[in-house]
Amino acid sequence: MKKSLQIGGAFVGLIVGAGFASGQEIMQYFTSFGLMGLIGGVIATIAFAFLGMTLAQLGSNLQTTSHKGVIYYIGGRYIGAVLDFLITFFLFGVAVVMFAGAGSTFNQMFGIDPMIGSIIMVVLTIATLLLNVKNILNLIAVITPYLMVIIFIILIYSLFTMDISFTAANTLAENQASAASNWFMGALLYVSYNIAAGAALLIVMGGTVKDSKVAGTGGILGGIMLGVLIILINLTMFVKIDVVGGMDMPTLELAKQIHPAVGVLMGIALLGMMYNTAVGMFYSFTVRFVAPDHKVFKPTVAFVGVLGFVASLVGFTTLVGKVYSTMGYLGFALIITIVIAWIRKKKEQVAVS
Fold it and tell me: Tell me: the pLDDT tens digits for 185-194?
């Protein structure tokens, strides 16, 4: 159970990056659809649990150290090649969003130039990638419960200090910018791009466990924790939409309203999650091309880090809206392939029995 919890915690830590924990992603994919966004959160929970279980089990069954083996296994030579390219591109794209998010957080918390905040995150990420994968997984998993506690405190405060009716909140929420055409598509797109981005490390995490049931349980636990966080953050921003509408970092703004100290704690949690995601994404991206024990691994990490920093200068909110929605539509191909692989596996089990 301990290993399952570690995989689940790392899964959450990987995906709950800048846009998720800050509330920016949840605002665009759930809250902007009003009360229907809560139903979208439930759908996302179920989808995350199923896909997390399947990917972790595939990684465990194939005992892989990179996503490449699993992707070619489930997609074949041609579809596998396309999915491999998409996932590799997503890994880099999400890490770039984390760098931009760090810049926004440092700016909103301390008034520091966003570029300086991004540079700090880039340096930390590069330094961490010189550790081995097990140390990285431990680092990613440890911050998850801390964030969940902070989010829960903000939710309770928001519910008890709500100044508008649910009807008014619903109207204001629906006036916010959305990253999808409707609430159902918003939930599917959200799951799609997160799985596309998180699949690589989830497969690698599954590959560290020989028992596929343990790996699968970890994927399910991670999916449920993600779903709970989505629903909590969504509800929190919905009841305080008059305060957080239009903010780059909505949850940080709510935390600061409770008390400046809570704002600092939330800022630390946000930076921790961005760090988690940046490390996980850049590690998975780099090992796709260079083995961790290869002599050019370190120079490659530094080079990719600098490229990521340059790309992050586009801006946080812009990147969340553009990069993630594009990833979401392309990620549907991966989800369909995963579902087909799961059905195929079930048929094989039935045939054997």
Answer: 999 988 988 8
